[in-house]
Design a protein that fits this description.
Elements: E1 2-6, H1 10-21, E2 25-30, E3 41-42, E4 51-52, E5 58-59, H2 63-72, E6 78-79, E7 85-89, E8 92-95, H3 99-104, H4 112-126, H5 130-133, H6 138-145, H7 148-163, H8 172-181, E9 186-189, H9 193-207, E10 210-213, E11 219-223, E12 226-231, E13 234-238, E14 240-243, H10 247-253, H11 259-267, E15 269-280, E16 291-293, E17 304-307, E18 321-329, H12 340-351, E19 363-377, E20 396-398, H13 411-425
Parallel strand pairs: 1-2, 1-14, 2-10, 7-16, 14-20
Antiparallel strand pairs: 3-4, 5-9, 6-9, 7-8, 11-12, 12-13, 15-18, 15-19, 16-17, 17-18
This protein binds flavin-adenine dinucleotide.
């Protein structure tokens, strides 16, 4: 079969790998001039490693990603340091990345609340019945079982930070999955995620996959028994096509999809993200903390402050300290239209709260990355609203972050859904 894949993110590349191994002719179309999609990175001339545009790490439970890397023979290049994640309480930061640390966290008091927190955590770690949980919002379920205090202190800030106006509509299965699949050790790839994406793309090319970079697909139509893929004045026909973009874009690329399927795509909700990457002259967190979770009500102008070089060594970046300041936001949010300089001015006073010695002249350089599609929002009974990978148009398939469920989206699940789509395309599912 002649197969086209739209998107050279980890989902598209994983699908291409399996489809090529099964003996098919594969073309990947990628609008950017690099592979890796949302997990791609960039490099300054004096850096040996790439920095991801949006902060990225793996969990030890990411079996699809780690399994693929092993299959490709690069498991020796995966690193799993143990960086510190911290949470704010009464102006002080507390490590908060294991059950023990959570139980010691003073923000929950040491009475009944802590017991409820412990039992709810244990129940969620042990149960596999997420279908029962998706009927409730995390807001109502957590208030009922963990109690208002624990919810307000622990879980609400997480929901507000990630989902903004949708915070009280997200279902409890999302929260379950998040607690179930996370580990304290966090992983990365030697050279950064981009290095892995580039190595993977090279392997695919060697296998005979054609990767067309810088080619934006404009439409996909069924014509004369084939699927015709149009891109910038060019049109090619394929037996099957897999699209790995956002649901909105899928609806635009293939307007001939039946009304019900299109409606399903357009009704899916998601959040965008704005992330600033800073190269600094000095270490920001003297304690060596990696991830600061910042509750919105504490007044920080960002949701997460992540000191990348407290996770991987600064020597990979010529001694520069790399820090991310980011937030999940609705697309109309002012951060999307601010210049890099304006955003930096907004963030600068907050950096002093992490290190009182911080000065403006610590900043070597900043980069700001924005995406309108960063985090799907899983509403109540989301499993019933997930668009099928096999669309109603014969030969046309769709695999996106919005169909990853109940797990929270991530490169691991991009690989999982990409490979699942490939099995469906090969009629092996
Ligand atoms: C802020 C943030 C933090 C994250 N943190 C983590 C993390 O810590 N760990 C983790 O594992 N994951 C993380 N993720 C999620 C992870 O990046 C994604 O789940 C994963 O990269 C999705 O891969 P994908 O292949 O499904 O889609 P994408 O990576 O979005 O790939 C789709 C590709 O399609 C291309 N494309 C779009 N339109 C067209 C067109 N018309 N023609 C041709 N090509 C087109 C795009 O350029 C893109 O390359 C994070 C994401 C964000 C935004």
């Amino acid at each position: 079969m002649r197969i086209a894949i739209i998107g050279a993110g980890f989902g598209g590349m994983a699908a291409a790998y399996d489809l090529k191994k099964a003996g098919h002719e594969i073309t990947i179309y990628e609008s950017a001039d690099y592979v890796g999609g949302l997990a791609s990175g960039f490099k300054e001339p004096h850096w040996d490693w790439f920095v991801e545009k949006f902060y990225h790490h793996w969990f030890q439970s990411d079996k699809d990603m780690l399994g693929l890397i092993k299959e490709l023979g690069w498991d020796g290049k995966v690193l799993f340091p143990r960086p510190f994640t911290v949470l704010l309480h009464n102006g002080k930061w507390y490590p908060f990345d294991s059950i023990l640390r959570a139980l010691l966290f003073p923000g929950l008091g040491f009475g009944l609340d802590k017991i409820r927190f412990g039992f709810v955590g244990l129940y969620l770690r042990l149960t596999n019945n997420w279908r029962a949980l998706e009927k409730y919002t995390a807001d109502e379920w957590m208030r009922k079982y963990a109690g208002n205090h624990v919810y307000e202190k622990m879980w609400k800030p997480l929901l507000v930070g990630k989902f903004g106006p949708y915070f009280d509509q997200v279902n409890m299965a999302w929260m379950w999955a998040r607690l179930k699949a996370r580990t304290t050790r966090l992983g990365t790839f030697e050279g950064g995620f981009q290095n892995f994406a580039d190595l993977f793309a090279d392997r695919l090319r060697k296998m005979g996959v054609e990767i067309r970079l810088g080619v934006r697909v404009e439409s996909i139509k069924r014509e004369q028994g084939k699927l015709s893929v149009r891109s910038e004045g060019d049109s090619k026909s394929f037996d099957k096509v897999l699209v790995t973009t956002s649901p909105n874009l899928m609806a635009k690329l293939s307007p001939d999809l039946p009304g019900n399927y299109l409606k399903g795509l357009l009704e899916l909700k998601s959040m965008g993200a704005v992330v600033m990457v800073l190269s600094l002259k000095h270490q920001l967190s003297k304690e060596g903390y990696y991830w600061f979770s910042l509750p919105k009500e504490a007044g920080f102008p960002m949701l997460a402050l992540v000191e990348h070089t407290n996770f991987v060594a600064k020597e990979h970046f010529g001694g520069d300290r790399i820090v991310y300041a980011g937030d999940y936001l609705e697309v109309g949010h002012e951060y999307f239209s601010m210049t890099d300089e304006q955003l930096l001015e907004r963030f600068i006073p907050a950096f002093k709260k992490f290190n009182s010695a911080f000065e403006r002249d610590w900043v070597n350089k900043v980069w700001v990355f924005k995406t309108s599609y960063a985090q799907p929002v899983a509403l109540v009974n989301h499993s019933k609203n997930i668009p099928a990978i096999q669309t109603p148009i014969d030969g046309l398939y769709f695999a996106s972050m919005s169909q990853v469920y109940p797990w929270d989206r991530g490169t691991n699940f991009a690989v999982e859904i990409g490979r699942r789509a490939a099995r469906l395309m090969l009629d092996k599912a």
